[in-house]
Design a protein that fits this description.
106 residues; mainly beta; single chain; 3-stranded antiparallel sheet; 1 helix; 5-stranded antiparallel sheet; binds zinc ion; DUF6510
């Protein structure tokens, strides 16, 4: 089975050239897709269930896409890739994203 989604960087040596940064480094890539600042988001890992701030996720950048991994279990929680066909967003590795309340909409 093939996928149009670029292969994500892997923590086990799949993409040695990808630098591991904190999630804040990937905020720019995600802010172009999400309607709000991703650094205000709490993301729950779909693998281990730990909730962590976007900035606490491990960001793998410099590959064919930007990959966010759980800091507890290293599972992929989200990835984004920009291709000629469009921008791909995969959040299948997360179980929830909690966005901070918008002032005035409480
Ligand atoms: Zn996890």
């Amino acid at each position: 089975m093939t996928s149009d989604f670029p292969t994500p960087a892997a923590p086990d040596g799949g993409a040695e050239s990808a630098a591991v940064l904190d999630g804040n480094a990937a905020a720019g890539e995600f802010s172009g897709i999400l309607a709000s600042d991703p650094t205000d988001v709490s993301v729950r890992c779909g693998s281990c269930g730990v909730a962590q701030a976007f900035g606490q996720l491990q960001a793998y950048m410099g590959g064919p896409g930007t990959v966010l991994r759980c800091r507890e279990c290293a599972a992929m929680v989200a990835r984004v890739a920009r291709t000629p066909r469009g921008t791909w967003l995969d959040i299948s590795g997360s179980s929830s994203w909690l966005f901070s309340p918008t002032p005035g909409l409480a």
